[in-house]
Write a structure and sequence with these properties.
By secondary structure, this protein is an alpha+beta fold. It contains 14 helices and 25 strands.
Length: about 475
């Protein structure tokens, strides 16, 4: 038989996020070229088809955990014309080995089918890709590229001009005279270093790229993109389908540009938007939060606070298809003043790790236009792959104004009970209302109605930091 040598070079330039300028080679790692046999019958990948391959197949069948064949070995071993590796393939190998020993031509060292490939990972945290491309690449954006025009068309869909030109220089006309390029662009959902590795490439009727995500220790919920390239000799590519295993994993929130996304809605109309007892449910200045995994839980969460029209709206927005791929982390937060929503939250305010999901939001009240009790409904959609039951921690910090604080003090849940101890401080609002406060016991007494309420920690902190501006003074007896 004539010698058949196929050469393939694989390189992966991965992980670009919009933090530093485009496509720098940060964290580059080079791996020595890997040689792999594509010889039919070579189950153990030693570049020969012998009786040892028959033994390897039988061992694989008997104990796959211990003797399992590698992906390329499975392709090479399937020689009996029936899909799947069985004992019949081992029998065929024995026949081939027996025939070789009686045929000198078949014992020639020219019986070779070798594929050489090389992997390279370039990690970049630059703004190399365009905005609003997330739906396009949410399940991987792959292609087989045979010339520079096709490369430019592929790259221009996703990447900025500077990056496109870089790869046109790398994969030029001279490259495409002898090679084709297999490309895939796919979202990486989290981590501040590359989490995708190429374990192997198998060549058969389908070319399978075994690319695996590694998220054992996720530093942060940083959304980035991986661009993987495989350069193949034209002789090695005959129109096979390409399967990228990474495209079946790490899928982001469907319909979103991220593996998590944040939204906020604001409601103030009690009777039409909110139920009459909405504030009783939320318990003024406390969170009414939940992790919601299906439409029934969503309806149960919404019903005590929101009117029917809004419930229907959100059941349409977060339907069964949404919950097939995601969970919804919800929080309904009391807002005391302002003619619009004053709670700020953005996608980068959500930090997802294996230990916890930390969500930070900020009150940006400034000088509120009007005292208006309302509710901010915060929604954080998280891909199921990233939620494993870890606790959710909400950190809602303040940029309070004096007016907002007095509004909160006025609307705390006061109960007509006897004060537990003596007040430490006295505070008088602009409308003349007098409050007696005990920071140690965390309670406040409102004169006039002669009732006590629990004093929230963040209001205590704000009053301590702003004692002069609100004229907080020690109580006298």
């Amino acid at each position: 038989m004539k010698k058949r040598i196929f050469t393939a070079v694989l390189s992966a330039a991965m992980c670009c996020t919009a933090v530093v300028p485009a496509m720098t080679s940060i964290g580059t790692s080079d791996i020595e070229p890997t040689s792999i046999s594509c010889l039919k019958g070579d189950a153990n990948l030693d570049s020969k088809a012998t009786i040892a391959d028959s033994v390897a197949v039988l061992q694989h069948i008997g104990n796959r955990d211990k003797y399992g064949l590698k992906p390329q070995g499975l392709i090479n071993a399937d020689i009996d014309g029936i899909a799947g590796v069985t004992a019949n393939d081992a029998l065929e190998m024995q026949k081939i080995d027996s025939q070789k020993h009686s045929d000198e031509e078949n014992t020639s060292s020219d019986d070779v089918c070798q594929i050489l490939y090389k992997t390279k990972i370039d990690w970049d945290m630059g703004g190399s890709f365009k905005e609003d491309i997330w739906e396009k690449i949410s399940g991987g954006y792959s292609g087989v590229i045979t010339n520079t025009d096709e490369l430019k068309a592929y790259m221009s869909e996703i990447y900025k001009e500077e990056t496109v030109n870089k790869y046109l220089e790398k994969y030029n006309d001279a490259f495409f005279e002898k090679n084709v390029l297999l490309a895939d662009s796919i979202i990486q959902g989290s981590g501040t270093s590359p989490k995708l590795t190429i374990e192997s490439v198998s060549f058969g009727d389908t070319i399978i790229v075994d690319a695996q995500w590694h998220h054992d220790e996720v530093e942060a919920a940083v959304v980035s993109m991986c661009f993987a390239q495989i350069a193949l000799s034209k002789d090695a590519y005959t129109g096979q389908e390409i399967e990228w295993t990474c495209n079946k994993k790490e899928l982001p929130f469907e319909g979103s540009k991220l593996t998590h996304t944040t939204e906020k809605d604001w409601y103030c109309d009690f009777g039409n938007e909110l139920t009459e007892k909405a504030l009783d449910v939320i318990e003024i200045h406390k969170n009414y939060d939940a992790v919601i995994t299906n439409t029934s839980e969503l309806k149960e969460y919404l019903s005590p606070v929101y009117r029917e029209d809004l419930i229907i709206k959100y059941l349409k927005k977060y339907d069964d298809s949404f919950f097939n791929n995601n969970v919804l982390i919800a929080n309904s937060v009391f807002q005391c003043s302002g003619a619009d929503g004053k709670l700020e939250i953005h996608d980068n305010n959500v930090n997802i790790s294996n230990e916890a999901i930390d969500i930070t939001a900020k009150w940006n009240c400034g000088d509120a236009e009007i005292e208006m009790i309302s509710v901010c409904f915060v929604q954080v959609s998280v891909a199921k792959e990233l939620y494993s039951g870890q606790p959710v921690n909400w950190n809602i910090y303040n940029d309070y104004s004096k007016e907002l604080v007095f509004c909160w003090l006025d609307n705390l849940d006061y109960i007509p009970i006897t004060c537990d101890g003596l007040p430490e401080y006295e505070l008088t609002a602009d409308d003349g209302t007098v409050y007696l406060l005990n920071f140690s016991g965390k309670w406040i007494w409102k004169k006039g109605i002669d009732a006590e309420a629990k004093l929230p920690d963040d209001i205590i902190l704000w009053l301590k930091n702003n004692a002069g501006s609100v004229k907080l003074k020690e109580a006298s007896y």
